[in-house]
Each structure stands twice: as structure tokens, then as C-alpha cells.
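Work Package 4 report. The design task specified in the project plan requires that, given a folded chain encoded as C-alpha cells, an amino acid be chosen for each position. We show below one input record used in the internal validation round.
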């Protein structure tokens, strides 16, 4: 039997960047797919252009706020070339349309549920009152409408919205219910960063298709989802000019971790993460993204001659190199003037207040083998809507130590309501990629992170959980009450 224990055990037997080594996993993936009785549809590489989800237009801008309307509905879309696939969407788009918002100006979103299951829409990374957070049990039924109000009383950040209805969230997001919400402010707008057509959001994820092109969902399917999508298309290409571009990357996968690099090994500049711009730009040749994490990067294509084709690679499995080793391709097709630049200082973060409380949390599976019935646990408990796990004094600064004590299965950790700061990773200071504000942080097997969070905005009950959504749907979620 091909189990998660065997597969991840083989993967973790290697070290270095290729932690989940594709070559080690290939025979196990083939055996797993044979057991499942499905054959995968093949997606050609670099055959379709990278699309851009439309920017949603408000239905009203009166009253000092922007009001939007979205309908959750089931449609058929062409994802694989020439094949129609049924997906779940916001307004018929896969992924959903982008909302562009400004700090200090509220946004109201009216959602109509035209699906046949309950839904709950969470604005990931946002500071909002509890009634507008899209809590897992705070759902709205098929045929009904729910209105969420987002005050936007926080700094710029690349937020995103997605379904959060407990026991449905994993499948709903997998089938398409997510979209970007880009919040900007005066600090960000004042910088001479690439803008307009040179500022491009890219949502990355994986998927599993059968030979008829149907999107196959199985809970905790870490092995079968080996077709990579960028903005809803498999392995697309993007025509670029020989100048700087800003790419806003989002890992919208349920389970997959990415480690991204340029195929020629050259460097690029990371300028932001979950909670907006970093204090200073960071030059790197590789970038980690666990599910729900975001990163803003700048790539300067002026160093390449027109005619260059440059692949964005992924160095992590599971999956064979031809399946998951290439994400998309940049085709340098023209020259262009470039007035943009990346300043040496991007923003100033406020000093951390003193922490009055320290807490510890363990994220683990009840069974790491992948056997049916496994549960996701935080501090040994499965999620219970009727239980408050953590009580927090409003205004308090706290240090949370979060550990993944497992030996095989990776996790990550997401806090609703607040952006936090990473103090340590495995006892050492975090690298530059984690030097800014965060709301989601990766935890590979055996890793520990220490976080500083300040709970000085809204009072109420919120959740924290693993954002490998299959894991949170299996119970790896808990509740905090701020009062």
C-alpha cells in the first residue's frame, strides 16, 4: 500500500533544497494513481498565455465606501486546453476577480450563494470585526445572501478571500473559491516600484484531473495533485519587456509547498510578504511559499536579450520533475523604458511592544501514515466550535511558540485578525523573507517558530489553524477569544 508515511518518508530522506524530492516520489505516485483507478489528463507546458483575473468594479462608491457584488456559482471553464471542467467560482471566474482597496476606505461585499452547499467567505490577513471574519461555522445557506464589511483600517497588504465553511472549505477552495484582495496605502503608492501593467498578481496552485479533464478531489490528496496552475491555467507563458516587473505571488494550494527559483539560477528581489512590504528589499535566488503565504518579488528582465525564454521552476515535490518542476515561462519579447526602481528602504515597522504572555502550540496529525480517519490536532485537541481554547486580554502583546513535532507531515500556522512578527525559526533569527508582517508561517517536520502578535484591534472570537486546508478540515483548528 502506498501511504503518506512511505511517500513523505522517502522524500524526507533527502536533504537540502529538494526536501520533497521528485525523483524519489515518481514510482510511488504512479502506484498511488493506479490504485485510485484514474488516469491523469496531460497538460502541455507553455502552450497558453498567463491570464489576469479581472479587477472587480464596484456597484457603488457612495457613502465613503466601495460596494461590490459577487455570486458563488458552479460553471464550466476551459482549464486544460480544449477541455471543459466544472469548477466553483466567484462571478464565474477561476480564480475569482481581484478587488483593489485602499487603507482607510471601507469595502462592502455582497455575496449571493448560488451553490448547493453552505459557504463562508474569509478575507485572509484582514483585521475585521468577528461578524465579518467569515468564521468556519458562520455560514450562509444556498439561495441566500451575506454582506461583509471590511473597514480596511490596516496598512497595505496582499490579502486574499476564500471559502471557510468548516468541512467544506477544503473542497470549496480546491474547486476554485478564492481570489485576490490587494489593499494599498500612501506608503506603498509613494514608492517608485513597477506599477500598472508591470505589477502582476499570480496565484499558484496544484490540481488533479482525470483523463476526461474532471477536477478530482479527495481529502488529504498530497500525491495526486500534480498539475500546476498559475492564475487558473497549466504551465502558462508570460510575454514580458526587458525591464523590471513586480509579481505578487500567492500560494492558493490546499497542501502543496513551493520553492521557486529562476532556471538560470539568477537572483531576484523580494520586497514583500503576507503583511505587505518588507522593511528593506532582500536579494535571493529561491523563495519558499507554503499554502496561503504571499510574496512580492521584483524580477529585472533588462539583463536578458530579447528572445530569451526563462522558466520559473519549483524544486519541491511530490510529483515528477516534468509535472511539478516547471511553473511558468517568461518570454522576453521587446525592450521598454523603465522609470521604476526598488528603494533601499521600503517601510518602517513599529517597534514590538513588550509581551505579557507566552504560549506554546503543537500542530500534529493523529496518524501520519495517511490512513483513513486521521485527525488534525492542536495541542492534542480536534476543533470544537463550542470550546474556547485561548483567552486573550485585549491590547496584549503575546509570544506564541508553535511546533510541528511530526516526522513526516509538514504544516503551517495561520492566525486570524492579526499580522504577527516572526522572532525565531528553530532557535535562530528568521531570514529576510520573514522579516516583515506575516499571517501564515511554514512548519516543516520538526520545526519550531516563535511569533509576536499584538491583539489591540477587535474583540471577539476568532480561529487559528493549519492552512493546509485539508488539515484544518480534519480538525487542526482552534478558537481564541479576545476580551
Amino acid at each position: 500500500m502506498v501511504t503518506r508515511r512511505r511517500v513523505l518518508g522517502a522524500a524526507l530522506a533527502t536533504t537540502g533544497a529538494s526536501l520533497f524530492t521528485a525523483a524519489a516520489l515518481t514510482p510511488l505516485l504512479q502506484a498511488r494513481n493506479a490504485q485510485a483507478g484514474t488516469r491523469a489528463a496531460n497538460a502541455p507546458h507553455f502552450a497558453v498565455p498567463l491570464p489576469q483575473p479581472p479587477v472587480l468594479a464596484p456597484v457603488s462608491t457612495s457613502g465613503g465606501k466601495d460596494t461590490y457584488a459577487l455570486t458563488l456559482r458552479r460553471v464550466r471553464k476551459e482549464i486544460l486546453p480544449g477541455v471543459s471542467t466544472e469548477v466553483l467560482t466567484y462571478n464565474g471566474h477561476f480564480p475569482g476577480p481581484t478587488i483593489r482597496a485602499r487603507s482607510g476606505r471601507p469595502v462592502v461585499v455582497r455575496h449571493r450563494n448560488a451553490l448547493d452547499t453552505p459557504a463562508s467567505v474569509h478575507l485572509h490577513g484582514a483585521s475585521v470585526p468577528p461578524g465579518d471574519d467569515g468564521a468556519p461555522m458562520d455560514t450562509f445557506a444556498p439561495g441566500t445572501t451575506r454582506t461583509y464589511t471590511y473597514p480596511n483600517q490596516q496598512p497595505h497588504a496582499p490579502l486574499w478571500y476564500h471559502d471557510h465553511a468548516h468541512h467544506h472549505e477544503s473542497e470549496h477552495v480546491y474547486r476554485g473559491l478564492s481570489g485576490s484582495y490587494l489593499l494599498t496605502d500612501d506608503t506603498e503608492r509613494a514608492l517608485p516600484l513597477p506599477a500598472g501593467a508591470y505589477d502582476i498578481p499570480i496565484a499558484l496552485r496544484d490540481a488533479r484531473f482525470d483523463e476526461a479533464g474532471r477536477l478530482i478531489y479527495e481529502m488529504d490528496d498530497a500525491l495526486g495533485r500534480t498539475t500546476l496552475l498559475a492564475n487558473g491555467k497549466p504551465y502558462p507563458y508570460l510575454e514580458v519587456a526587458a525591464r523590471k516587473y513586480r509579481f505578487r505571488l500567492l500560494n492558493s494550494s490546499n497542501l502543496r509547498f513551493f520553492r521557486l527559483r529562476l532556471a538560470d539560477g539568477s537572483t531576484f528581489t523580494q520586497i514583500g510578504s503576507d503583511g505587505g512590504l518588507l522593511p528593506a528589499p532582500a536579494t535571493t535566488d529561491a523563495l519558499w511559499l507554503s499554502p496561503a503565504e504571499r510574496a512580492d518579488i521584483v524580477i529585472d528582465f533588462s539583463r536578458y536579450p530579447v528572445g530569451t525564454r526563462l522558466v520559473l521552476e519549483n524544486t519541491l515535490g511530490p510529483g515528477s520533475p516534468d509535472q511539478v518542476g516547471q511553473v511558468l515561462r517568461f518570454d522576453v519579447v521587446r525592450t521598454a523604458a523603465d522609470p521604476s526602481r526598488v528603494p533601499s528602504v521600503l517601510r518602517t515597522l513599529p517597534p514590538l511592544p513588550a509581551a505579557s504572555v507566552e504560549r506554546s502550540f503543537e500542530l500534529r496529525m493523529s496518524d501520519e501514515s495517511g490512513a483513513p480517519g486521521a485527525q488534525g490536532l492542536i495541542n492534542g485537541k480536534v476543533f470544537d466550535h463550542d470550546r474556547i481554547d485561548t483567552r486573550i486580554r485585549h491590547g496584549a502583546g503575546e509570544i506564541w511558540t508553535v511546533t510541528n513535532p511530526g516526522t513526516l507531515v509538514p504544516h503551517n500556522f495561520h492566525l486570524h485578525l492579526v499580522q504577527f512578527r516572526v522572532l525565531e525559526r528553530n532557535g535562530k533569527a528568521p531570514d529576510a523573507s520573514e522579516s516583515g508582517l506575516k499571517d501564515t508561517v511554514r512548519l516543516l517536520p520538526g520545526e519550531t517558530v516563535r511569533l509576536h502578535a499584538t491583539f489591540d484591534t477587535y474583540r471577539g472570537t476568532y480561529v487559528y489553524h493549519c492552512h493546509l486546508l485539508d488539515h484544518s478540515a480534519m480538525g487542526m483548528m482552534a478558537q481564541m477569544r479576545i476580551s
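The first strand starts at residue 66 and ends at 78. Validation will be extended to a larger panel in the next phase.
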